[in-house]
User: What shape does this take?
Amino acid sequence: MLRTVVCRAGSGLLKHSRQTVPALWGSRAQQRWASSLPMNTVVLFVPQQEAWVVERMGRFHRILEPGLNFLIPILDRVKYVQSLKEIVIDVPEQSAVSLDNVTLQIDGVLYLRILDPFKASYGVEDPEYAVTQLAQTTMRSELGKLTLDKVFRERESLNANMVHSINQASDDWGIRCLRYEIKDIHVPPRVKESMQMQVEAERKKRATVLESEGTREAAINVAEGRKQAQILASEGQKAEQINKAAVIFPTLIMGQRLSREKAEEGGEFTTDTHRPHGGAPTSS
Assistant: This one.
């Protein structure tokens, strides 16, 4: 008889749990947040990386850890089953306006993990919907602060700002955003054409600048070559003159010395001829 009562109570709780699941997790995407509620029996085996939230007589009682657990039938009930694994959510494509008034179509991927099963169960009704809406609104606000060029150049900083903003808002839900990645950014066709024209203009400008710099460098090199040639030529002439002077100067010195010696010898000869024989030279 006791077995019959327990079986009826268990079947009734199982029926109630099956009716509760669609109300809480209506879509297939929401099923990723929690597995189906287990039958309320005395002995329960909780899988690894799952947290089972138990209510006793309608109030929160405790969170079952992985492994063997015991419950009191009829009084205790597993109300929520939260997965502690990393969860991947596709953020739907949305439109946003940049700082320079360009409408963009952008989507992304959000990586989450439940850190507090209690807050995730009682802090928000639909965690995935709440985080998805928060990611979309945060992305709109962050894109409104950047121009179109910065959106493409600063994707990493944009992702980091998204994670920081989402974590500030989702702290009360017991959810931690690990990272956010932008998948695709679509711009209007006219803006895309103008961007392509701008890129082509930039390439032509760079080519012109490089060509002018090449011409200038060539002219500078030619002028430097002529300058160096003139300097080398003048240094060669100077060295040649120095060498000639080094050869001629000693010859001139020797010639002056010889002429001076000859002049001195000629002066002594004339002085001796004016002296009388056998006597001192007469003075006039």
